[in-house]
Amino acid sequence: MIRRAEPADHPWIVETGAEAYAELGDYTRILPSWLAQAGVLAWIDHDLQGRGRGFAMLGFYLEAGSPRAEVVADLLALAVLPAFQRRGIGTRLLSHVIEVSERVAPTSRISALRLTVAETNVAAQRLYERAGFRLIDGSTSYDRGQRALRMARAL
Question: Which of 21, 86, 111, 129 has the largest count of CB atoms under 10 Å?
Fold first, then answer.
């Protein structure tokens, strides 16, 4: 089941994300800064006992340098604990984020949902491609220099 994350869930999100993204950078620093921003929403997938299995974070913000102050939707993070991977949890979390983005898009004039994925994370790239994401121009790097790809999906 997916539910909106509450402030009491933030330590679990940070711990889970730091484990999932350990090779990419210091997510014990990055995730709390994202969670503190007003335009960031987070959801947790949990079992019947309320134990978290994965999470997703979605950010809405103004595009820096945009001449028309365009609002951007960005999938900031999606992680599933290793013991629960390959059970459809990542797909459900991604679908939830897409649904939320599609509901907000018309009134906020958001045209696409964007994300960044590690170049070596082929499984995640396939998940995103199945959901309609396509590579966009420009690649980037994480804190530790690992290459990353930018992808987007029209809303």
Answer: 21
